[in-house]
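Saturday, quiet lab. Running sequence design on the structure tokens for the scaffold JK sent over.
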């Protein structure tokens, strides 16, 4: 699914700073945040990459923050 995300200037700046710090594109940084939010909420399903990017143990999740 393709979507268009309209961000405020402040949110756009934060996303770009996160992407730069992670060494990834803004799109990849946004996708990672969606996966992390799903993991945080315990959402499990057939979302491509969600389970593949899941930490092996809860302590690993803290390293993502």
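Result came back. Writing it out in full:
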């Amino acid at each position: 699914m393709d979507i268009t995300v309209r961000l405020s200037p402040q949110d756009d700046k934060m996303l770009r700073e996160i992407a730069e710090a992670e060494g990834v594109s803004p799109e990849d940084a946004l996708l990672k945040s969606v996966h992390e939010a799903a993991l945080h909420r315990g959402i499990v399903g057939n979302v491509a990459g969600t389970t593949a990017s899941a930490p092996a143990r809860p302590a690993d999740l803290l390293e993502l923050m």
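Notes for JK: Residues 9-64 form one domain. The first helix runs from residue 9 to 22. Ask whether to fix the surface positions before the next round.
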